[in-house]
């Protein structure tokens, strides 16, 4: 059995300028003084929380520059890094919201593109959200092995679609990453119960690094980055301040929870019960 390892979520109030947001990440890593193995998780749109989605398309053409710098950071600090989302090119007027996972020598070991896009009216003094205007939806789930356990990648609005998480658990997921930029209105009502439900029903650790506060682009986000145990317990909550929270992953505890309450084996909505 693998020993306990550290997971970290960095809560951010990203502005529009990548170099400023990147510098914030570097300062956080300098302060953290991490022991290995450690997995550092960043929020959705951490590198650039743009004024318009057209700006995200424009930036997507140059973001490989930052990806190369992230590889070096992983090597320098000996960390695994789940880099929230970064806009990467899709076609002339669309990007994909790519969630990249780097290992501790700076290799990209997984890329998940956000599947569920936030085309939603929210009573928060905005005109509503139309993410699909300039973002192309991902089409594939991503579960990947790591020293921390099997990691399933997802992003923000994905949290509302439990079928995605069931599919990742079917592929062996033990940790669910949910980098986010939740609205304050939906966050206050839904964020924590949704995350707890996914942790409990999937019997997985959940690491949800979030954006917080009033951003340079005028948006407001809910914060409360959370680390949850597979029992649904809140291990750490970043509340409404920027900075890092930490938790320990114990796969022996996860196995014990799954052995005592084998909900995956009991699930009547799996095809083997119909055939
Ligand atoms: O657009 C960017 O630059 C970064 N991306 C976001 O902020 C995304 C799309 S608008 N936000 C969400 O998915 C919020 C979901 C949410 O709040 C809910 O499900 O209630």
Briefly say what this structure is.
By secondary structure, the protein is an alpha+beta fold. It has 7 helices and 17 strands.
Name the CATH architecture.
Answer: 4-Layer Sandwich
Number of contiguous helices = 7
CATH class: Alpha Beta
The whole-number mean of residue pLDDT values reads: 96
Count the E strands.
17
**What percentage of amino acids are in beta strands?**
25-35%
Question: What are the segments in which pLDDT stays under 50 over at least 5 consecutive residues?
Answer: none
CATH topology: Nitrilase/N-carbamoyl-D-aminoacid amidohydrolase
Distance between the termini: 35 Å
Pfam family, one: CN_hydrolase
Keywords: Hydrolase
Family: Belongs to the carbon-nitrogen hydrolase superfamily. NIT1/NIT2 family.
Domain CN hydrolase: 1-251
Please name the defining characteristics of this protein:
275 residues, alpha+beta, Nitrilase/N-carbamoyl-D-aminoacid amidohydrolase, 26% strand, globular
Report on this model:
The strands form four sheets. Strands 1, 2, 3, 4, 5, 6 and 17 form a seven-stranded mixed sheet that branches. Strands 9-10-11-12-15-16 form a six-stranded mixed sheet, with helices on one face. It has a two-stranded antiparallel sheet with strand order 7-8. The chain has a single domain, classed as Carbon-nitrogen hydrolase (Nitrilase/N-carbamoyl-D-aminoacid amidohydrolase). Strand 15 (226-228) and strand 16 (234-237) form a beta hairpin. It has helices at 18-32, 53-60, 64-77, 162-170, 184-202, 251-260, 263-266, and strands at residues 5-11, 38-41, 80-82, 86-91, 94-102, 108-113, 119-120, 129-130, 143-144, 151-153, 175-177, 205-208, 212-214, 220-222, 226-228, 234-237, 243-249. Helices cover 29% and strands 26% of the residues. The protein is globular, with a radius of gyration of 18 Å. By secondary structure, the protein is α+β, with helices and mostly antiparallel strands. It is built from seven helices and 17 strands. Bound molecules: N-(4-carboxy-4-oxobutanoyl)-L-cysteinylglycine. N-(4-carboxy-4-oxobutanoyl)-L-cysteinylglycine binds next to helix 5. N-(4-carboxy-4-oxobutanoyl)-L-cysteinylglycine binds at residues 44-45, 49-50, 56, 118, 129, 131, 156-157, 160, 181-183, 186, 190.
């Amino acid at each position: 059995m693998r020993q306990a390892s550290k997971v970290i979520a960095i809560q951010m109030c990203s502005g529009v300028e990548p170099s400023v947001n990147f510098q914030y990440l570097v300062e956080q890593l300098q302060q953290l003084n991490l022991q290995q193995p450690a997995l550092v998780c960043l929020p959705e749109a951490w590198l650039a929380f743009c004024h318009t989605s057209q700006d995200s398309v424009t930036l997507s053409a140059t973001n490989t520059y930052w990806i190369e710098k992230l590889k070096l950071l992983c090597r320098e600090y000996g960390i695994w890094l789940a880099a929230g989302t970064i806009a990467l090119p899709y076609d002339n007027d669309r990007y994909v919201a790519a969630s990249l996972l780097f290992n501790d020598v700076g290799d990209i070991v997984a890329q998940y593109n956000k599947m569920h896009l936030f085309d939603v009216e929210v009573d928060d003094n905005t005109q509503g959200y139309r993410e699909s205007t300039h973002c192309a939806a991902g089409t594939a789930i991503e579960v990947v092995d790591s020293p921390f356990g099997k990691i399933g990648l997802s992003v923000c609005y994905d949290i509302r679609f439990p079928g995605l998480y069931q599919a990742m658990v079917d592929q062996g997921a033990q940790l669910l990453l949910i980098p986010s930029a939740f609205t304050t209105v939906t966050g206050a009502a839904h964020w924590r119960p949704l995350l707890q439900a996914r942790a409990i029903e999937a019997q997985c650790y959940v690491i949800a690094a979030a954006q917080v506060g009033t951003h340079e682009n005028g948006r407001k986000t809910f914060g409360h980055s959370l680390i949850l145990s597979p029992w649904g317990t809140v291990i750490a909550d970043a509340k409404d301040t920027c900075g890092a929270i930490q938790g320990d992953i114990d796969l022996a505890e996860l196995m014990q929870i799954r052995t005592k309450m084998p909900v995956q084996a009991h699930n009547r909505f799996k095809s083997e019960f119909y055939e």
